[in-house]
Design a protein that fits this description.
Elements (H helix, E strand, L loop, with lengths): L2 H20 L3 H21 L4 H21 L1
Helix pairs in contact: 1-2, 2-3
């Protein structure tokens, strides 16, 4: 993947994470944060496997999905 697209994914991830702090509805917070975490995992993979970014964001993906399913 080109470095420009990889950087775009990283910026998108940051945007979604910050946006999740602005929202008030917990379900929307979890969904937006999940999108950000997924973007960070993709960013970490395409940036030569940045494990300090991939591991915590992958864990947070599972946490967000768990809570979204649990609340449904």
């Amino acid at each position: 993947m080109s470095p420009e697209i990889t950087n775009f994914i990283g910026y998108a991830a940051s945007f979604f994470i910050v946006l999740s702090f602005v929202l008030k509805d917990i379900k929307r917070i979890r969904i937006v944060n999940l999108i950000g975490c997924i973007c960070f995992v993709i960013y970490g993979i395409y940036s030569d496997y940045l494990w300090p970014i991939i591991i915590p964001n992958a864990i947070l993906c599972f946490v967000q999905v768990y809570h979204l399913i649990k609340k449904a």
